[in-house]
DNA sequence: GTCCACATACCGACCGGTCGGTGTCCAAAG
DNA sequence: CTTTGGACACCGACCGGTCGGTATGTGGAC
């Protein structure tokens, strides 16, 4: 038996035949987002993915590892995206607007990851939590750099600390998952542009 | 023996003699905020409060009930505060600024409750979750009413839907707990005023 | 044979909730 | 004043069930 026999272990060969680690991550993400990390048992994950516990513990060291991998993937992607937008040669305001709008769109596109990030971060082991925080911090600092650039050039107000503005904005972004519904009347890009506008306009120097 | 004998059952008589339900709520709040709802066992709570499981299940129907009571208390207080500010006879911009700043200050004053709200809401039973959402919704609608009032009068921009602005702002507020530290250099009121300024300025009509 | 990629059976820890008691207080009866 | 009875506020041992993790088996590729 076993038709699709000659395949490399980490490679997809069909539809439900995708690599086991990928399937595990995928179903774990959905379940964590829906029920929360602690309320999702390893048993449920492996059943959803169509494998057994043995398979999971073959690829991942622990349930925590699964969560960590989900985080790491999202963080890498967002950081990559920000870097590419921020370092273009467009005018500052456009770069910031694009970065802001993009992070909203990608957060909506991956609402599950976003929800998990929000709710389950503190359930990671302390050292893994530290790693995530460090990565997150780098991201925020890059974003903050854009704001500070505008403050130095006089395009943005200077009476608001840049880090307060960053936390203000990303608070909004992280909370998208708690209210945005795909059935709503606004597309992800529309929300993103609204958010970017609100941020940019909040940054205009006062009493213009 | 038993010196302090004649006291009503729900009343404090001294320092560590505070009413048992109050002590339970208090320590449960701290523990839920620190370790999360699911990771805090009933045993831990009752030990911290210096009572036994029997006592807890005498006053609360379940562990869920404990969480629900914590929510309900915070919601009642915030709604009361908003109502009093919003219905004063001050100019609209002042009322909105006060409401915004106040909710930030009270969120920082009760960071634990805020953290719990953020992380553990989805762990409530569906019906209790529904009750909380309904109350929360009323709060948001009241706040949104202020923004819509300003849009009608021409004080605020009309190119941004009021509910998007509300979600934008409360995202920031709910996320205070994930970055604000009392050891930081800004007081709660300073953050509140910054946030209120950012909101009000984001609402200015464009191309002023 | 032996290595890899899983499968299966199982373990010990722990957890929310229960339930049969127990001590204290108060009010009415005697 | 004493007794009685029962409501109230707890106590804490215990239970059924679940969970993360592990140890061992197994079957195909080389």
Structure description:
The structure is a homodimer of 208-residue chains. Chain A is mainly α. The first copy, chain A, contains nine helices and no strands. Chain A has helices at 20-35, 42-49, 53-59, 63-86, 92-109, 111-120, 126-153, 162-174, 188-202. In chain A, helix 1 crosses helix 6, helix 4 packs across helix 6 (111-120) and helix 4 packs parallel to helix 7. The longest helix of chain A has 28 residues, at 126-153. The relative contact order of chain A is 0.11. The A-B interface holds A 36, 38-39, 118-119, 122-123, 160-161, 164-165, 167-176, 178-179, 186, 191, 194-195, 197-199, 201-202, 204, 206, 208 and B 36, 38-39, 118-119, 122-123, 160-161, 164-165, 167-176, 178-179, 186, 191, 194-195, 197-199, 201-202, 204, 206, 208. The structure holds a DNA duplex (30 and 30 nucleotides).
């Amino acid at each position: 038996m076993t038709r699709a026999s000659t395949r490399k272990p980490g490679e997809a060969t069909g539809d439900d035949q995708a690599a086991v680690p990928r399937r595990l991550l995928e179903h774990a993400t959905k379940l964590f987002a829906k029920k929360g990390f602690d309320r999702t048992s390893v048993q449920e994950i492996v059943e959803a993915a169509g494998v057994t516990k043995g398979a999971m513990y073959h690829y991942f060291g622990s349930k925590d590892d699964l969560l960590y991998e989900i985080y790491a993937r999202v963080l890498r992607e967002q950081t990559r995206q920000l870097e590419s937008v921020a370092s273009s040669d467009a005018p500052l305001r456009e770069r910031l607007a694009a970065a802001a709008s993009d992070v909203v769109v990608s957060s909506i596109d991956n609402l599950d990851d976003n929800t998990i990030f929000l709710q389950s971060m503190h359930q990671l082991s302390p050292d893994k939590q530290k790693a995530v925080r460090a990565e997150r911090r780098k991201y925020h600092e890059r974003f903050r750099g854009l704001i500070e650039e505008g403050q130095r050039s006089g395009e943005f107000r200077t009476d608001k600390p840049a880090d307060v503005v960053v936390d203000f904005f990303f608070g909004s972004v992280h909370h998208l998952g708690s209210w945005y519904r795909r059935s709503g009347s606004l597309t992800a890009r529309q929300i993103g542009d609204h958010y970017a506008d609100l941020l940019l306009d909040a940054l205009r120097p006062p009493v213009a």
